[in-house]
Amino acid sequence: MGVLLDISHVDMEFPTPKGPFTALRDIDLQVRKGEFVSLIGHSGCGKSTVLNVVAGLYRATRGGVILNGKEITEPGPERAVVFQNHSLLPWLSAYENVELAVRQVFGKTKSRAEMREWIEHNLQLVHMGHAMHKRPSEISGGMKQRVGIARALSMQPKVLLMDEPFGALDALTRAHMQDSLMEIQAELNNTVIMITHDVDEAVLLSDRIVMMTNGPAATIGEILDIQLERPRSRLELADDPHYNGYRARVLKFLHERHSKRDPSPKKSAADEKTKFETKSVEHAA
Amino acid sequence: MTSSSLSISKPASWKLSLLDNNLFNSAIRYVAVPLTGVLVFLLLWSATAQNIDTSLGKFPGPAAVWEQFGALYQEHERSREKAAAFYERQEIRNAERLAEDPGYQPKIRDYTGKETFIDQIFTSLITVMSGFLLAVAIAIPLGIATGLSRTLSSAINPIIQIFKPVSPLAWLPLVTMVVSALYTSTDPLVAKSFLNSMITVTLCCLWPMVINTSVGVAGIESDLVNVSKVLRLSPLKHVQKIVLPASVPMIFTGMRLSLGVAWMVLIAAEMLAQNPGLGKFVWDEFQNGSSDSLARIMAAVIVIGVIGFLLDRAMLQLQKLASWDKDSITH
């Protein structure tokens, strides 16, 4: 299938009092329709920035993103985002949160009854049919994230963007959510870009894993094709040599090749991380 | 069997005594201690009052004030009886005139007796609520606008900071002159004194609401703003669906602060504007200078305090009803 989303030579600079800070340099990635792509890298390496550029929340300093032959200039529901912290409106119930999105996207094309059915369908898809009328404060973190996914799916996006969707969840809940996501993916065959820092998650869910080098001026270090048959089961894959091979490649990249121009390769990953964190604080200030 | 029932009954009775103890403790804490506080205050007041001689006699103690509460209520009752009698007389007279001359158009004249203390309480409440609601109508849209636009916020902030600490007494002469100049109807809907007091209240209680609304709106989580962007909500829908509900807790905190300010300002404004409310009552009693005046003023002070407290509680209840974020409500 052809290329749906073309991220073409994207540079991203943020102005700071000490001059521009280059977060991304020459990010070039083509995503096919129905493909599940993970972006992996150390925290603060600019993965979220890539996602925000695709979402249209940031404008690239150089280069651009083309979706279906049209350049992206602003955010829109055809690139729905699942945020890391669910970002549900706390004063609305799960149903009403999805309703807000559905009304905005299908308000003119669907009837009232069709919209209601569509909202309920999406909530059932993420197994939230039983708690549709609860508010975010009344449900668990995993359930909130399910509603966030339902909201994004209900917009019928061309590309679904997920920013560490399960990062804030405990391991058991995370595994459940990954299984749910694979189920949904098998049914809908969405085009997905997901950010993660979890190697197992990336290998289990993705068709391709995009490994990013550390910032500043982060870029794509390596792209790994995951040729594991679907449906995938985490238990069976645990002993699969291919799975473990992919896993090892990603881990190796993250531990050794995470920085293109690291002068002292002996430095531990932890050092690298703290070094970057001070940088990102400067950038925020 | 016996041993097991014994082991159950033991912690149960222990629990019961704990419950009793808690009940006893809270009875002391919430009833006995405050009551003692009030009692000590009354004793101190009474003892001190006796030693203060004013040109209007001794400063009133609690007993004298209590007596005036009764007197004020009786005056009110008597005035109501007079008014009823006045209207009854008119109706009898109209009926008589109508019997003599069937073409007569009956007229009812309003009773023009002096407002009683109770009437004045209601006037004050109506004035404060009008001024407060006018302030709400201005402050919330203004606060939302300044919260959304950093430029507008920088433009308006100095003005807010300068006007916020201004005393109502400084505004009042200006308000009076402007109202006199602009409000020139031959058949006025409301008295000028009412407008003067109301507008002064508005000018003074506007600011806490503007500031709180603005801070609430500016502090909306960026994720929620991003949701709005991804959904491409129109500016109007963005305010309606995201901004307004998100800042409701802060807006209500501002409203509660403002209502407190409004009630304080009102009494001063009424004194000078001669709006027939509690402020005017205090002023008139002061000018009157009878031997009861100080006790009547003290009675008004207590009523003003109680009403202020009740207004705050009412606002708190409203806040609890309207706010989705129950944790943000403080007592």
Description:
The complex is a heterodimer of chains A (285) and B (331). By secondary structure, chain A is of the alpha/beta class. Chain A has a domain at 87-179: 3-Layer(aba) Sandwich (Rossmann fold). Helices cover 39% and strands 23% of the residues of chain A. Chain A has helices spanning 47-55, 94-106, 112-125, 141-154, 171-188, 199-205, 234-237, 241-256, 269-284; strands spanning 3-16, 19-32, 36-40, 62-67, 70-71, 81-82, 159-163, 191-196, 208-212, 220-225. Chain A has a 6-stranded mixed sheet with strand order 6-7-8-3-9-10, sandwiched between helices. In chain A, strands 2-1-4-5 form a 4-stranded antiparallel sheet, with helices on one face. In chain A, strand 9 (208-212) and strand 10 (220-225) form a beta hairpin. In chain A, helix 2 (94-106) crosses helix 3, helix 2 (94-106) packs parallel to helix 4 and helix 3 packs across helix 4 (141-154). The radius of gyration of chain A is 19 Å and the shape is globular. Residues 261-285 of chain A have low confidence and may be disordered. Chain B is mostly helical and 331 residues long. Chain B is built from 10 helices and 2 strands; from the N terminus they run H-E-E-H-H-H-H-H-H-H-H-H. Chain B has helices at 2-50, 62-100, 117-148, 150-163, 168-182, 192-218, 222-230, 235-273, 278-288, 293-322; strands at residues 53-54, 57-58. Chain B has a two-stranded antiparallel sheet. The two termini of chain B are 51 Å apart. The model of chain B is unreliable at 1-9 (pLDDT under 50). Chain A binds chain B through residues 55-57, 74-77, 79-81, 83, 85, 87, 89-91, 100-101, 104-105, 135, 155, and chain B through 221, 223-224, 226-227, 229-233, 237, 241-242, 245-246, 248, 324-325. Chain A: It comes from Microbulbifer rhizosphaerae. Chain A: It is a peripheral membrane protein. Chain A: It holds the Pfam family ABC_tran. Chain A: This is Nitrate/nitrite transport system ATP-binding protein. Chain A: It is found in: Cell membrane.
